[in-house]
Amino acid sequence: MPYNGTIPEDAPLSVLLFYAAMENGQSLSTYAQSIHVGAISLRQFISGTSQRPRQRTLELIGEALGMPVEEVRRRMQLAPTAAPNFGDWLRIKMQGRFSRAKLTRATRISDGALRNYLQNQTLPDADQARRLAEVLEVPPYEMASVIIANTVQQHGGALAPARPAAEERPTTSAALATTPELTAPAPTPNHVPVPGAPAPASLAPTAVSSSDELRLIDLWRQLHPQARRATLNYIAMLLAER
């Protein structure tokens, strides 16, 4: 499944792999065999628990997704966006349209499996997720994103904050000061930069367009929480010195 324009440019590797298996109508184990990657390794990539993947494995994944190894590595660092519990999300999609029995018949997924999904006890495999997406008329990438967010959370992984709707996003740099999660803590003496924090930048003012500001905010949200805190500490220190 080569990358195409229907997938967000910042799609994490975990979501891309699950989405690819969905598009092929395959379970994760079958998809792993088809791209010549071990099933355990594939599931580790999807759950965000892969530590030191082999170069050959990255190359095989890159070939399957139609992207260079460097892009595969970059997307490994992107966290899935936070999502509701899958059972709650699925119940909302069913509301007023499908009972559990009706959805069982339409998807050919067992009643026991659907009951477990709705009770947040298990998550669908990729082939089951495709059937659910088709019957519920949900975009496959959205289905994959919700399932992977739940998968990563179950494994104790980090999730990126859910992004606000376009009309709710800040449009000026002034919005940074009014967004609660962007409020900088008080500067501390002998500040020690945390690994992953941006390098010190020049204090000379530069012209920044609104599109650049939105991009910076999006990039900031993708950082590890420790790096976000370090960024805010550094900004606070700069403000205190001015």
Overview of this structure, please?
The chain is mostly helical and 242 residues long. Among the domains are: 86-136; 166-241, no CATH class. Helix content is 54%, strand content 0%. The chain contains 13 helices and no strands. Helix 9 (126-136) packs across helix 10 (140-154). The longest helix is centred in the last third of the chain and has 17 residues, at 225-241. The radius of gyration is 21 Å and the shape is globular. The model is unreliable at 1-5 and 166-206 (pLDDT under 50).
Task: Provide a quick synopsis of the model.
With 242 residues, the chain is mainly α. It has helices at residues 13-23, 28-34, 39-47, 55-65, 69-76, 86-94, 100-107, 111-118, 126-136, 140-154, 175-178, 210-222, 225-241.
Index terms:
13 helices, mainly alpha, 242 residues, single chain, disordered N terminus
